[in-house]
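Design review, sub-item: ligand-bound model
Attendees: FS, YL, KQ
YL presented the inputs for the adenosine-5'-diphosphate complex:
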Amino acid sequence: MREALQNAAVSRETTSRPPAAQAPRISLEATKGRSAKQWPKPPRCRVITIANQKGGVGKTTTSVNLAASLAMHDLQVLVVDLDPQGNASTALGVDHHADIPSIYEVLIEDRPMKDIVVAAPEVPNLYCAPATLNLAGAEIELVSKVARESRLRRALEGYDIGRFDYVLIDCPPSLGLLTVNALVGAEELLIPIQCEYYALEGLGQLLRTVELVKSHLNPKLEVSTILLTMYDARTRLAAQVAEEVRGHFGDVVLKTVIPRSVRVSEAPSYGQSVMTYDPGSSGALAYGDAAFEMACRGAEKTE
Ligand SMILES: Nc1ncnc2c1ncn2[C@@H]1O[C@H](COP(=O)(O)OP(=O)(O)O)[C@@H](O)[C@H]1O
Ligand SMILES: [Mg+2]
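KQ shared the predicted structure:
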């Protein structure tokens, strides 16, 4: 009995984690996860927009964690935060109070990208174009601007994005001009889909917007990737949703599914992605696998 209790105490000790705020810094080498091998470098910079007009489906979480995974494998990555909430900037530990030069000044005042891009402090090779609350006004201010749908593309063209392997654009939860700018500025669209009831609702509207952008503004745009997020393996519903999405979209859906994990939702409040906050957690391992899968698919494509 006593032995059993002692064993229980030991196992509790080894499995329990220190309080998050004092979490020890973990060497990045240790965080490289399951695929420590060299990750393929795309032949040229892949610009990927992460959009879904529904809020809370995992756009920002996906942007930040895929970006961190890729950067940890020696790829150069820029995250463009296009949501006035600035959640991606927060999660990357990047300042985004109103006085910080941000993507707002780029879109509205023609400020060059080089003036606003900063290094994310937690992960080498990872950079961020932050968003401030000023961006909330941009949706309206853009309406009267010349080439209002193409302002992000122009800004990216005027910036040396060739030095990046990936540019990931995190969108706000709407199909307004900010999201349209992201769709015009990218060649790929990644749609995160939450494994919940109503998961597919609104997707038709997003896909129609994509078709409009393709036919009028950006013929190169392609829905290249769908990622199932917040999967709860205990529910039949999650499995049903996953099956339905795969039935609709086939191979575009990544094989990796992101599980619901508390560590994923805790990480942003420490200005971190889950990849550095708790690299061994199920969420971090899954995002690592998803990023690897995405990187391999990109490498298969020919120019
Ligand atoms: N895999 C996950 N497990 C647990 N919580 C998650 C997961 N992915 C996202 N979340 C949480 O769900 C909420 C919405 O995610 P977020 O990425 O901000 O969505 P969006 O950018 O689409 O609005 C956030 O609080 C986030 O921390
Ligand atoms: Mg978001």
